[in-house]
């Protein structure tokens, strides 16, 4: 297995490995590289849905979708209808994914956010549709000491209703919004594997507890956009068959737009945060 880091503070491309049959030591190496680089892309793997599920199991328990009773392990991040047609740009299916174009960390609007997201490209457009990641460990490192000290004990409210109300999120979840009340997460978190601090922000973070709502919202947005700058970025152009895994505990991501006359079909498996009280984790 060959791990080639990219020219950024995060990210590596991994080749000479078959994710259908990794042995224990290969999984160990993948986990170590993932902790170090935050995001790994494995080009040219062409996993089936079942193979993606099997590979994903090495990272933890699956996370349920937007309903805590859901048992579906696959999320289709796609503008193809179940019949295989390109969906209308104004359709709810397309509008729902609009939110993905803004920097975020998956499921931070849940009481326990996602640990890993594993995304595979099945059908890609001939322009646009890249995924981009931002290293929020390095984003923390560049803050001045005074800002770090001020942020250290701050807690942010993350809210599905806040981040999804403008593009079809509320229409998509309907009554399930009752399972997605606003939650709180520290703004500065320590990664359990590396011990590195990082800024936990992104589009679901609404404001800081105990601070002026609008001023703290502006601050969270600034921390996100200042953090997500080169050399802390990796923008990846997909080929069909590629698969990526990123660490939602310390990396933000966003998807770039593409011409909506073209198909883009991705399949995501999501690994739940390791908290023993995580109601979103599939235990069986
Ligand atoms: C996701 C996501 C971005 C993309 O699947 O969680 O944000 O590029 N995807 O599809
Ligand atoms: Mn996402």
Structure in words:
There is one protein chain. The protein is α+β, with helices and mostly antiparallel strands. The chain has one domain: 4-Layer Sandwich (Double-stranded beta-helix), CATH 3.60.130. The protein is 23% helix and 25% strand. It has 8 helices and 15 strands. The strands form 4 sheets. Strands 1-2-3-13-5-15-4 form a 7-stranded mixed beta sheet. A hairpin with a 6-residue loop joins strand 9 and strand 10 (197-199). The radius of gyration is 18 Å and the shape is globular. Bound molecules: N-oxalylglycine and manganese (II) ion (MN). N-oxalylglycine binds next to strand 5, strand 14 and strand 15.
CA-based gyration radius? 18 Å
CATH architecture tag: 4-Layer Sandwich
Largest β sheet strand count, sense and barrel closure: 7 strands, mixed
The CATH top-level class label: Alpha Beta
H/E topology pattern = EEHEHEHEEHHEHHEEEEHEEEE
Query: What percent of residues adopt helix (DSSP H or I)?
Result: 10-25%
- Outline type: globular
Low-confidence stretches: none
Q: Which structural class fits the helix and strand makeup?
A: alpha+beta
Bound molecules: N-oxalylglycine, manganese (II) ion
Question: How many separate domains?
Answer: 1
């Amino acid at each position: 297995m060959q791990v080639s880091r990219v020219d950024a503070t995060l990210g590596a491309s991994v080749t000479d490995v078959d994710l259908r049959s990794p042995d224990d030591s290969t999984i160990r190496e993948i986990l170590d590289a993932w902790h170090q680089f935050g995001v790994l892309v494995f080009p040219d793997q062409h996993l089936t849905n079942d193979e993606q599920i099997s590979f994903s199991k090495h990272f933890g328990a699956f996370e349920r979708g937007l309903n805590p009773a859901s048992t579906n392990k696959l999320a289709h991040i796609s503008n193809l209808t179940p019949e295989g047609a390109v969906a209308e740009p104004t359709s709810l299916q397309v509008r729902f994914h609009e939110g993905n174009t803004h920097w975020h960390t998956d499921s931070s609007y849940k009481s326990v956010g996602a640990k890993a997201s594993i995304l595979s490209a099945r059908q890609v457009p001939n322009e646009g549709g890249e995924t981009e990641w931002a290293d929020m460990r390095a984003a923390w490192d560049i803050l001045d000491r005074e800002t770090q000290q001020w942020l250290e004990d701050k807690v942010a409210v993350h809210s599905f209703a806040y981040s999804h109300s403008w593009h079809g999120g509320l229409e998509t979840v309907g009554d399930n919004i009752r399972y997605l009340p606003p939650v709180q997460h520290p703004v500065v978190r320590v990664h359990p594997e590396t011990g590195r601090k990082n800024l936990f922000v992104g589009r679901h973070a609404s404001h800081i507890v105990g601070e002026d709502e609008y001023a703290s919202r502006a601050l969270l947005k600034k921390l996100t956009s200042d953090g997500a700058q080169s050399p802390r970025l990796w923008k990846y152009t997909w080929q069909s068959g590629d698969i990526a895994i990123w660490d939602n505990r310390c990396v933000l991501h966003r998807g770039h737009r593409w011409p909506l006359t073209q198909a883009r079909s991705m399949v995501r498996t999501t690994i739940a945060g390791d908290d023993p009280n995580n109601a979103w984790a599939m235990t069986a």
